[in-house]
Amino acid sequence: MTTAHPSTKLTEEKYLAIERQAEEKSEYLGGEMFAMAGANREHNLIVTNLVINLGLQLRNGPCRVYSNDMRLKVRQSGLYTYPDVMVVCEEEHFLDGRRDTLLNPLLIIEVLLESTEVYDRGKKFGLYRALETLVEYLLVTQTPPRIEQYVRQEDGRWLFSEAEGIGSDIILPSIGVTLGLSDVYDKVEWKSVPDELKTY
To answer: Most CB atoms closer than 10 Å: which of 32, 95, 106, 128?
Structure first.
C-alpha cells in the first residue's frame, strides 16, 4: 500500500540501508521511495484475523504466514513492498542474511484501503504476477465483506472468483485451507453495509 509521494532517486542498496533504520515503512520501485499509506482500525483487525486463522490452520505443516512487517522483493521489477499477508510453503528464499526480505511467496493477500485500491488491483497485481512462485492473490474489501480471489492456472491465466457476505467461505487451493468470512471480519464494525451482507 503506497501513497504517490516519491522522494529521490536511490539505488536498491541505499534504499535498504535507509529502510532498515526507518521507523515507518516505504516501498521502493524504479529508484524512488514511496511512503506507505496508514491503515485504519478495520484494516488492522482484518489483517490480524487473517494471520491468526491462516496460522492456526497451517500450524502443523510446512507453511509459514507473515504479516505486513515482512518485506517482499519482486526481482523482475525491483519492487520492494510490504504485502498485508504472505504465505510461503517451500524453503524460504531471502534477499540476504538479514532474512527480512522474502523472495518466494506462494500466496499474497492485500486488504484494500480507499487510497490504495486502484494500485492493489492494477499495477501492483501486475508486478506481483511476475513472481514465479505466486499461485494465489486475494483482495479483501473492508465494506462490504468480500474476498476476491485470483488463482494462477497451469497455462498462466488467472482464474477469478469471489466470496461475499459474512456467512460465506472461500477455499484457498494454493495452501489447502478454507477461510470463513465470519472469522476474517471478526469484530469489524460497518457503518453502512446492507443487512443482508452482514447476516447471510
So the answer is: 128
